[in-house]
Input
Amino acid sequence: MSIELHTPLSESCINKLNVGDTVYISGYIFCGRDAVLPKVLKMIEDETIGDLGVDLHGQVFFHTAVSPAGVGPTSSNKLEIESSIKPLSKAGVKFHLGKGELHKETIESLNQYNSVYGVIPPVTALLGAKTKEQRIIAFPELGMEALHLIKVEKYPAIIGAAHGRSIYE
Output
């Protein structure tokens, strides 16, 4: 079954998703990976994330860099990335988008904060055609690894972890 999602996502929307569901995400999503995630977590900890003029509640966070070549998922189980999932979920992020298997503890933290993890295939050309806008929100000195906000239309993903379960089990 294919499910269309529009950001920001509600709690009830997340409650309806199950491991293996195919989703299409439309709206604005955040993009970042190894270099920027520790900076974002520091802003959450310092309660300065609101200074960026964005709200993380109900948002999607895509584990990727944004370059002229397009966007494509990076491995979500890299230490800097996977360790950001719990605090980002606690801060309101409802959907984490990337690739790779997550640790059981991470899946449990997703469940704790009613967030999910979606696996997106590494198809840069397809995603480029579905990316409608992009801009840097913070840390421009990191170039393609800065914190970006992009507007997407029907990004494809498969729910890889939800409600304490994983597609990799």
